[in-house]
Structures are given as structure tokens and as C-alpha cells.
Amino acid sequence: MRTPDRPETQDDPETPGRRPNRNPGATARRDRNEVRPNFKQSAGAGPGGKAVPEPETLALLALAHVVSDEALLPRFLALSGVAPGELRGRAQDPVLLGALLDFLLAHEPDLIAFAAAYELPPTAIAAARRALPGGTFDD
């Protein structure tokens, strides 16, 4: 409600032309249920100027994504030949991290789902793969 001591602003839900937020709890639920890593801005920018993580960090996010998915994990283990007990010990292995990104890049629906889950452009995942060992023919 506008009063003489409260000027009309764009943030005012009663301002003409501004639609009120019909679901004010949506943002709170999202923040409470999701954990997003804090990326370094120096790594590059994704959509909307959001920071893109370093290649190793992005690959670790891919590892967490694959391990947490009941359909992706068995498929990755079968295709890579990695034993389930090896994943934790090899989490810092750049070769395994590259294999994880190759796995996601090889199947577009998985790539898009991973990119959307972390609000990254799919091209950032391909760029991270190129930066890890085995990502280019020059390695």
C-alpha cells in the first residue's frame, strides 16, 4: 500500500505494470534443497556472466552427478571398467576425470542434464575435457 512517506518503486508489488510474485516460497525451497559450489570468476563465464569452474572442479562435479544417479553410475562403471571401490581412490586422477567427461559428452541427454543441473553451458564441459589429459591429440 502506498503512503505519502513511502514512494512508489519497482520493488513495490502494488506498482502498476509489475506482476506480484505468486510463489514467494519457490526461491527459498530451491536454496534449501540445492548446494551450488562457489566457482572462481577467473575460470570464465557461462550464461548470464556466471562463473564456470576450473576443469578439475567441473569434472569432480561430474563425478558427483554420475555417482548420485542410479542409471548413470552402473553404465559408467560398465563402460569404463572401473570397479565401484576404485572411484573414491581415483577421484583426483585426471585420467578418470577426463573419462567421466567423455562419458557425459558421448550421450547428449546426459550432457544436457548435467549442464542444466549446474547451470553451465554444455560447451564449458567440452572445454574442460580438452583441458584435461587426453583431451586433445597434443597431450
Structural notes for this entry:
The protein is an all-alpha fold and 139 residues long. The protein has one domain (26-131). The protein has seven helices and no strands. The chain has helices at 26-33, 55-67, 72-80, 86-89, 94-105, 108-117, 122-131. Helix 2 (55-67) crosses helix 7 (122-131) and helix 5 (94-105) packs antiparallel against helix 7 (122-131). The longest helix has 13 residues, at 55-67. It is globular and about 35 Å long. Residues 20-36 and 38-43 have low confidence and may be disordered.
**Overall helicity:** 40-55%
Distance between the termini: 65 Å
How many strands, what sense, and barrel or not for the largest sheet? none
Low-confidence stretches: 20-36, 38-43
Shape assignment: globular
- Can you write the helix and strand succession as a string? HHHHHHH
Strand content: under 5%
Topology of helices and strands:
Blueprint: H1 26-33, H2 55-67, H3 72-80, H4 86-89, H5 94-105, H6 108-117, H7 122-131
What's this, in brief?
The chain is mostly helical and 139 residues long.
Keywords:
single chain, 0% strand, mainly alpha, globular
